Amino acid sequence: MTQTALPGRGMEPVPVTVPVVSAVTGAVTAAAALVYAQVALPGQPLLSDYALVPGGMLPVLIGMLALAWGCVSLAYGLAAREPARSAAARVLLLAAAAGLMLSAVFPTDPGNAAIGTLPGEIHRWSSAVVFTTLPVAGWILARGRVPLPKWNRVKALSVTSGVALAAYLAAHPASITSPLIGGASYYGLLERGVVLAEIALVVFMAMTVVERRPAVRPVVPAPAESSERLAA
C-alpha cells in the first residue's frame, strides 16, 4: 500500500491497515442496508421487523452481519495497535459482534404476537447486548486520552448513543414510562437514531487506529573539527 508523505512536518503516515478498511466497509454496508430497507420496503415500527416482510430478510441479514464483521475487524486492528490498552474495548466489540450474529440468526417476533417465542427472546436480548456494548466500548477506548479531536468525536458519539438508547428504552411500548411520554408514536425513530449513531461510532473508532507517528530521524555525529578544538 502506498504512502503519502507530508513535507516539512517530520511525520510519516502509517498505512491504512486491512482491519481498518474492513471495519469501515462493514459499517458503511450496514448503513446502506438500513437505508435500502427504509426506502424500498413497507414501513415497519422497528428495523428488525423488516425481516418479516417479503424481500426484507436479505437486507436485514446483510446489515447485521456486515456490522458484526466491522466490529471483529476493529477489534483485530486495536489488538495490533494497542494490545494492552484496548483489551476491554475489544472484548465489548466482540460481544457486540456475537450479539449481531445471534440477532441475524434468530428473527424477531411479529409485533402483534401474543406470546413470545424462544428465537424472538434470543433476538431481543442479543440486540440489547449490541446496543449497550458499543457505546461503552467507545467510551472506554477514548477515556484518559489526550483531548485530540478524534478522541473527542469518539466520546461525543458514545455519549450520544447512550442518551439515544436511554430515550428509546423509555419510549418503547414495553416500558412503563412509554404512556407517560407518548413513546409509541416515535420509539421506532429513536431506534433508528441509536443504530445510526452506533454505526458512526464504529467508523470513528476505526479511524483512530490510523495514527501518525513521528519519523525516526538519524542522529548526526558532531563534526570532527569541533572535537579537535575542544581537545586543544
Automatic annotation (TrEMBL):
**Source organism's superkingdom?**
Bacteria
Q: Where are the transmembrane segments?
A: 16-37, 57-80, 87-105, 125-142, 154-173, 193-210
Q: Which Pfam families match?
A: DUF998
> Does the record bear Transmembrane helix in its keywords?
yes
- Please name the InterPro entries in this protein's record: DUF998
Reply yes or no: does the keyword Transmembrane apply.
yes
Keyword entries, A-Z: Membrane, Transmembrane, Transmembrane helix
Q: What is this protein called?
A: DUF998 domain-containing protein
Name the lineage. Answer: Bacteria, Bacillati, Actinomycetota, Actinomycetes, Streptosporangiales
